[in-house]
Amino acid sequence: MKAASTRKTSRREEARALFRNAILEAAEEIFAERNFHAARIQDIAARARVGVGTVYNHFEQKEDVFRALLEERTEAMLATLAPAPGDPPAFEAALLARVTRLLEYVERHRGLFQIVMSFGVSASNTDESAKELCGKSVKRIERMRAAWREIVREGIAAGVLEPREPDDLAAFLGGTVRSITLRELMSGEPLGPRAAVITELFLGGSRRRAKT
Questions:
Q1: Handedness of CA 164, 120, 21, 58 (dihedral sign)
Q2: Superfamily assignment of 62-212 in CATH?
Q3: C-alpha distances in Å from residue 134, one per residue of 24, 29, 32, 120, 209
Q4: Where are the domains of the chain?
Q5: Which class does domain 1-60 fall in?
Q6: Residue 139's pLDDT is what?
Q7: pTM of the shown model
Q8: What is the DSSP string of 136-202?
Q9: pLDDT at position 11, please?
């Protein structure tokens, strides 16, 4: 009896996870097409091919859907910055590989990240609820900063980067990625080719100088 009950619970959890994932995938498409303000729960439900009630079983309101989507995509984006099997051993080449993975991930979810980036720069946008969701997750922002810090610490340890304050170098690297990514997202240009430019700019300003 206990084993049967456990299997039944497991199947329910799997079904719930499948529905949740379908809702988030649909929500990403709807948000990208109509922007946050114009998107409705009914639109998300229709795209996911579930009832409106099913969406509300998982999320109380549209803001909760957006928050969950943003958290999941941020989690996956952070994973692209971690070392991966097959990365080159040299720091410079490994940095290029990691930045390339990051930009390729953002490209695959371009619509969502366009919304996130636009709320950070558009002072005229009146959608305050989405602005807050995009811009004020202290935990999310700090995790991104921590990822950049870890990368620059690796560069310093490898003797490639100047042994400066890691927070300063991390801000430089993160700022370079963000500014170029924002420009290409807003212009509609592909992101992947910009990885080499970002890496070159960062290394050009932070590479360790030979002592004279």
A1: positive
A2: Tetracycline Repressor, domain 2 (1.10.357.10)
A3: 16, 17, 14, 8, 38
A4: 1-60, 62-212
A5: mainly alpha
A6: 78
A7: 0.83
A8: --HHHHHHHHHHHHHHHHHHHHTT-B----HHHHHHHHHHHHHHHHHHHHHHT--STTHHHHHHHHH
A9: 81
